[in-house]
Design brief:
6 copies of one chain form a homohexamer. By secondary structure, chain A is an alpha/beta fold. Chain A has one domain (6-311): Ribokinase (UDP-N-acetylmuramoyl-L-alanine:D-glutamate ligase, 3-Layer(aba) Sandwich). Chain A has 10 helices and 14 strands. In chain A, the strands form 3 sheets. An 8-stranded mixed β-sheet of chain A has the order 4-1-9-10-11-12-13-14, sandwiched between helices. In chain A, strands 3-2-7-8 form a 4-stranded mixed β-sheet. In chain A, strands 5-6 form a two-stranded parallel ribbon. In chain A, helix 1 (39-49) crosses helix 8, helix 8 runs antiparallel to helix 9 (278-292) and helix 9 packs across helix 10. Chain A is globular and about 55 Å long. Strand 3 of chain A pairs antiparallel with strand 3 of chain B, so a sheet runs across the interface. Chains A, B, C, D, E, F: Pfam families: PfkB.
Amino acid sequence: MVDKKMDVITFGESMVLFNPDSKGPLRYIHTFTKALSGAESNVAIALARLEHKVGWFSKLGDDEFGRYIECFIRGEGVDISRVIKDEERSTGLLFKERFAHVNPNVYYYRRNSAASYLSPEDIDYEYIKNAKILHVTGITPALSESARETVTRVVDFAKENGVIFSFDPNIRLKLWSKEEAKPVILDLCKKADILFPGIDEAEMLLGIEDPREVIKTFHEMGPDIVALKLGKEGCMLSNRKEQHFVNGYTVKTMEDSVGAGDGFAAGFLSGMLRNKNLKECGEYANGVGAMATLVKGDVEGLPTYDQLLTFIDKKEYVDR
Amino acid sequence: MVDKKMDVITFGESMVLFNPDSKGPLRYIHTFTKALSGAESNVAIALARLEHKVGWFSKLGDDEFGRYIECFIRGEGVDISRVIKDEERSTGLLFKERFAHVNPNVYYYRRNSAASYLSPEDIDYEYIKNAKILHVTGITPALSESARETVTRVVDFAKENGVIFSFDPNIRLKLWSKEEAKPVILDLCKKADILFPGIDEAEMLLGIEDPREVIKTFHEMGPDIVALKLGKEGCMLSNRKEQHFVNGYTVKTMEDSVGAGDGFAAGFLSGMLRNKNLKECGEYANGVGAMATLVKGDVEGLPTYDQLLTFIDKKEYVDR
Amino acid sequence: MVDKKMDVITFGESMVLFNPDSKGPLRYIHTFTKALSGAESNVAIALARLEHKVGWFSKLGDDEFGRYIECFIRGEGVDISRVIKDEERSTGLLFKERFAHVNPNVYYYRRNSAASYLSPEDIDYEYIKNAKILHVTGITPALSESARETVTRVVDFAKENGVIFSFDPNIRLKLWSKEEAKPVILDLCKKADILFPGIDEAEMLLGIEDPREVIKTFHEMGPDIVALKLGKEGCMLSNRKEQHFVNGYTVKTMEDSVGAGDGFAAGFLSGMLRNKNLKECGEYANGVGAMATLVKGDVEGLPTYDQLLTFIDKKEYVDR
Amino acid sequence: MVDKKMDVITFGESMVLFNPDSKGPLRYIHTFTKALSGAESNVAIALARLEHKVGWFSKLGDDEFGRYIECFIRGEGVDISRVIKDEERSTGLLFKERFAHVNPNVYYYRRNSAASYLSPEDIDYEYIKNAKILHVTGITPALSESARETVTRVVDFAKENGVIFSFDPNIRLKLWSKEEAKPVILDLCKKADILFPGIDEAEMLLGIEDPREVIKTFHEMGPDIVALKLGKEGCMLSNRKEQHFVNGYTVKTMEDSVGAGDGFAAGFLSGMLRNKNLKECGEYANGVGAMATLVKGDVEGLPTYDQLLTFIDKKEYVDR
Amino acid sequence: MVDKKMDVITFGESMVLFNPDSKGPLRYIHTFTKALSGAESNVAIALARLEHKVGWFSKLGDDEFGRYIECFIRGEGVDISRVIKDEERSTGLLFKERFAHVNPNVYYYRRNSAASYLSPEDIDYEYIKNAKILHVTGITPALSESARETVTRVVDFAKENGVIFSFDPNIRLKLWSKEEAKPVILDLCKKADILFPGIDEAEMLLGIEDPREVIKTFHEMGPDIVALKLGKEGCMLSNRKEQHFVNGYTVKTMEDSVGAGDGFAAGFLSGMLRNKNLKECGEYANGVGAMATLVKGDVEGLPTYDQLLTFIDKKEYVDR
Amino acid sequence: MVDKKMDVITFGESMVLFNPDSKGPLRYIHTFTKALSGAESNVAIALARLEHKVGWFSKLGDDEFGRYIECFIRGEGVDISRVIKDEERSTGLLFKERFAHVNPNVYYYRRNSAASYLSPEDIDYEYIKNAKILHVTGITPALSESARETVTRVVDFAKENGVIFSFDPNIRLKLWSKEEAKPVILDLCKKADILFPGIDEAEMLLGIEDPREVIKTFHEMGPDIVALKLGKEGCMLSNRKEQHFVNGYTVKTMEDSVGAGDGFAAGFLSGMLRNKNLKECGEYANGVGAMATLVKGDVEGLPTYDQLLTFIDKKEYVDR
């Protein structure tokens, strides 16, 4: 890849996450523990831990929760020099509600958050130019009209300036309806150089269930690289020239499924930045994704490069 | 007083309060404990504990935080039969940030909360009719345009139907500007039968500092009873016929100043409902207000009637 | 069913439960968390959550633990207007000791508790008349001589006044011996209109193991409806006219087995109150019982009616 | 003093103490921390820490709470070889309720506890013989008839066998009435060789307020040594030959007043066992008593001999 | 066995263990809970709980952590009269880092700890003479040169004085290299009367994998009794005359594997002290070892003799 | 000042601090909370928060505690690019033991820590050149012989390269004796351009008590600027030309005195870097020092520049 100051730049809302101290309806929970949440900062932190130069930015409230997010992400070695402070709006929050038998509920307090006021004028376009790869998720255009415009502008600018555009659809139906989401996400899929759809998302977007068909259709739309996530099964990878199915991990002791997709994207990009072949990229992707789920929290389980290699080497670890 | 089903009805936003587990900037706080906050529900709970029949209502999110608020307030013996659930908006939250040397900061997550969508159509006017006293605070009209209208409509309806209107200005400059607040609050002061201004509020509203002048001016505006809060000094009471200064408590071991004003109003109203004379009403007001500050939390320190009498009797308790 | 003010009235001892913060012998446990425990209040809360009008009462100590129980149960929407306060005796307590490999130990501090002094004179018989169903468990007659007499008197009064008598044997050998328990429990079984025996209890009481035989024998004794609990297998239901076996749930992620039987009874009674057929009543019973075990605590996992229907619909939930 | 195996033997009920994690009514407290409480074990632990050979015993429930008490007290270096286990009754408990402005409330769960079944046949009289000093408090005879008899029998046996009898009246009106307590306590005062009354207790027992008169009257009754506790003022000591007033400590940072009297008795006895003069014994008594209040918990603040000497030497410590 | 004052004496470093309050990298852990750790004190406590007379000693820092260790171990009924205090060095510490998918990491802070300065002059040899059995582990010689010498001297002294020498190799490669460890451990194996090797250790020491060969080889070296641990499979026992394989337990709910080996040794020695036959000794060994893993912490799950017998009797317990 | 890349560079050991969850002897403390400690990183963080460009480095263990320190300090915006990892030694730790009546005890686990192996070869001398000011404390030369040499080499190099040398003696007698410390510290005082002695340290080093004499003597030794700390009284400042006494703050609600001296140095240097006059520098120094004590923890209370100016303006804050 071209030599640039930054390996990957990404942006999007990070929030303070409040985790209940035990399972069950929040009404009966007495104490909550503060943590960090945010798909794009998860990717950024994952990449920083894998020794890449990464930048992340967002608009944060000029409040203690915003300062917490800044300190946390900068502490992980991510460049946060382009973070913008909004003196009028607050930093977004989210509460998790955990159950033994179903997936966690999420309560968002992010409507009208600082990040949802992100607008094209907030962007330092020169900074974007400096990146080899721009990574964006489908959460950001769901935040607000201005956030959607910002995504469009930044993506177009990046592509015009030779920055590789990596896109994870990350469709969140709590933030917008299927009808609103579909055209926006499809438009971004078309522009993407690297695409990280989940198989369910692919079905929703394309109406196609068969992995090979999905990949073919996405290639026809635009992306040269498609990394299709198949859940525990693993992933299907294609770069027009070659295609691979890479087996996933059966994680018997999963602590927290959140962050797996972000880890997958980061693992894949790390492979690419290290000039690994497609299959190896997929192994990195599966590995980082699985490791993210082994520790509670979005980022706490993300591996260093050494830890990733050890893990990939010893698949039996997760089968205890 | 006339014989009615309910002694006091009040309404206004209650929120889930998150208390940090230690002092200092929230950025460094790991865990938070859930509690209840809300000026009007504080008054309602205080009155229920003093053995009166009280109703409180608000609009709550149809979520676990809303259910927590319902259970808590109903658990205290307050009638919550008129609470409205909003399926689209969330229950409001607030975070406290405590310091050893300055008053706590408050971070609100209540913009566009369910309660701020309270509107005149939400009200069961027959229910209001059933009350001897309607108690309102100046926080509710600060929440939104529709909340303001609701207050006007309910207050006017109550007055037309012979319900005594009790008003606590409770000016919160975090919610609206002095300029916005002043005319709205003054208008409600004029309509009030019983008024609970703080001396600072009086100065802001009237530009008058002298307690006797303040009381005189408020009487001229409308209220027959003015209970002017003078902080630790105590209070000055007037019912046009008689006027009393009642000494306050020097609480050396104050744990939490929040809720003192609400306790004051509840104590006073309890005295009135028990047909105590003006001075005794002031003693109840000072007593409940002081006791509210002796325990952390808005309502945890509120006394039963027996505890109040014991406390009033043994002023030395708080002077240890 | 006849139209009455209350759907179900129940009574019996509720206690403050202290849960250890980790597993293992209590001697090594540093902190304990306060919660609520009590078979009858579990049933009452379950029914209130399922939208029925329920009353519960007991004798509580005039102390903070008694007030906690009052606030909790009233907060859940149960009528507690007939609770009696005992100024001389304390509210009962219990401590749990949890292990990974065996069922929890229970340490009772309820001997001579306020509830064990419940006596026939404490009862507001007019209140009992107001109920469609009176629900009693076999724990109450085990508390004391006077509690036993109270049960007899209340049950007889209810039956004379056309109140349906629902009985859950709930034999606790920590409270009395098999010899003491058997005649008392059998006598109540005979009087019952609806009976909720467990298969083990049936064997102890009748010396019969075969479910069909058990049901036949109980019908001959008196009860028109027998809902026999078969553990994970499910339940066998009979109303003299029809008989059904309803499959249970395999809850792989059980958090707390306590409260399952109470949820079963509440689910069944809810079905009856909604005029569901026998089989549906059994499905409700199995559903509420299973859901009670999915969250730690006796009542924290009890569903609303909507949640129950969703759960019954998606049996796979519990099979994750 | 005569050479014997044990310096001091004492006996009486020790309980598991549950401390609320914050101040205020217990109803609102979520978590409690386990600790040890018991006047006689406090004295025993204080003496063990001051390097004396001490034995303590009681009757404990054969349960985890009893085992906790055993391990704790034995861990402190006290001989517990004569502890008796009761397989039928439970170990007693107590809950504290703390307030900022008044002394803590105490909720006992000790009625019918194992310790209240202590009876004369439980005693190993040979063991008593081995002690230089037998220390008893006025709590034990308040527990039950059989406990009272046990105290009488043990005290009489000790006196007949040349064991010095040290008595702390420790009148607890939560356990018995003034009328019940007075003759029993006075009888033990008469038998005592060393007496540790508080000035309020003296007034209750003798109807005398003047310290010098109190001491004179007690000497006439029997005790050769009277150590009269005057609260923060300090203490007045007399051994018929000499009389001293020893100044107390102004502890500005008192954490927990419980255990001060037990520390006082232990400090005094330690001085005697080290053959210090009367005034020094009083300084030790004041010192240990004050130090006990500097750390939360009954025994956590009790000093080693070195720490005591340092503390006595630097009175300014407590005046910060 | 010969009648002696003590059944077993053991010595070796005990440390304060800090347990993270949740799983994952320590960097993200906020709070840690204090506990006790130490192979030899585990054995001592296990034996004390099984009603044997046991002594344990080590060199501890003259600090609060040392005092914690003393109180804990003495509290369990172990004689600690020979513990030595080092005024210059600190008590050793260790931190655990727990993961869902791999065994815990351990961070030692024991280099130059007080215990590592244990030297032959510190020993009360008369005390050693008093024991029927001396139990030593291979951890102690790994601590330092002087600790190694101490082991040699004590072991030789014990053997000369008719004390049975029980040895658990307990090879910890975090403390020394395979090369350093092997000759020292082998030398102690040769001297041992009773030997508790794990099958992995046996392979490392002897280069032999077959259990029967391992046992034969060890017998040839010296030990009359070899109890070879085969993990979950169970153990192979031999006393030259007879040989038994004893099935292990499948513990589905293992909480903490640490302490299993110590429990095994203690169970075996308890059987011997009770004159049980070889097979029964193995059943006790397997039982205590399995029970140690059912509760978090090294010693919290160790059984009383009654609990052990119940457990052995009901193997199904652990198969829930 | 000359224009350079960095405003201040500092180096020295940072440790993980374990804070007990309550006061009293550590033996009785159950849980500890992790935090950061280190005089030089305190200064660096204080300066970063005051908007200066700061670098800090040390040698850390290649372990989770080292990674925690890195993340924390980098998160605060301090450049940590020159931190060195030691694969063989551990990161140092310290435990605090807090009392109500005396200053906290400190238990160090830093002997042979990674930082104590800091040596002259570890230094990037070009990096030092880039700083306007080099700040060093007297703790670093106390760590080890090689650390002492490193200090000498770095200080000499800095002075030769026109970097201002700022020195805080920070004499810790737990780390070395007065005899060892004195010549080393005095030598560094002589080399210092800016010196931050405490009045007690001055007395120890010079044998002089009078502040004016102290300042005169230090000036004669070398430093052009002497900022003499006088505790609560405030400070005495001198730059050969002018001399000022600046009043301190009476902090009635001090939470944690640790970090006050580091805040003082940072405040003073911040004033200098902003070209404030000597008196203003003193006001900043007093202000940051006082604010550091208002929140528990070394760095949690350190102000932003805005917060500092507000605080200085409203001295009454701290006198509540």
